[in-house]
Amino acid sequence: MKPLNELPILRLPFRAMEEVYKGMHSIIKMISNRRSNTFPILRLSLLAIEEIFKAMDPFEIMTFSKISKRTKAVTKNMAFFSKYDIHFCVDKILWIYIRGTNGLVSCNYIMTWNEKLDGKIEEEKCLGRISRRVYKYSTDPIEEWKQLCIYVLEIFKKQTINFLQMRMDAFVDQNVSIINFLKSNMKSVDGCYLHQWYQKTNVDENFTHFLNNITINNRLDSWLHIKNGDFDGKIPKNLKELIINNSQWIGFERLLEIDCKHVTLRDNRITNEEWNSFLKKWIAMETHMNLESLELDNRNLEEFRDHVLHNIPHEVVSEEVSRIVPCVANTHPLQ
Fold first, then answer.
1. In terms of domain of life, where is this protein from (predicted)?
2. Are 84 and 23 members of one domain?
């Protein structure tokens, strides 16, 4: 964080400057006096402090909050923090991402086993945006990451985070503990990306535990390799987008349980006859009332038309992009 004497006073809007003036008897004199090395920010009104906070980036806010109990209390009083984006990542390298309201400055807190990196700050600038990486050394990065997650959620008053990325084979033995931690400290997550590097690693039970304990609001993107064809994890309902890239475990009965707006299934084991039955039920509004679009893996259009759409009214809008199944009550594209 910049020293208090370097706080960007002159970058504040005029209204905030007025509030600063009200809070200090000699503000004009102090601003013009470049030798001054103090700035009594805590003496200002809450409105003035909030305007100053809006000019600070996430790293400066976090650092300011750690100065004392009073600065932490002041930081937690900021009303606009709910608009900040918070991302958590569980991988061999754990990190926490914070992005401010204007999106121009973001901060990544990265847990590291490398003691030489402790406290190191890297900064990248691209197209007017600044990305700052702050490294934190720990002999127990997972526990350190958990404590920082708790602190970030507290400071920015977040019960729901914007995005969670989790590599399921990074800490297989600790996945349950990490999932339980997330469940205990946050209400839900808007978007979720789950993956694994090594296909042979069995993460079925971890995926089941995740689906049964983490509330996902909008999007689930899974690249996991499920081994058990009778996988019993609960697929979230009412998502805006569900993407299952290795969906061999999705059979017809599972398909009927899915109730999301946009669904992508790749490498599924559903037969042509079952797809035909499903599309008829969908058109008749007997199932999947929320479904607006369905994307399947690469299929030969002629084969799909002959074996799936042979007795379903349809119109080919594009040979490469989509197949349309129109009906009076439910005119959603099958992509």
1. Eukaryota
2. no
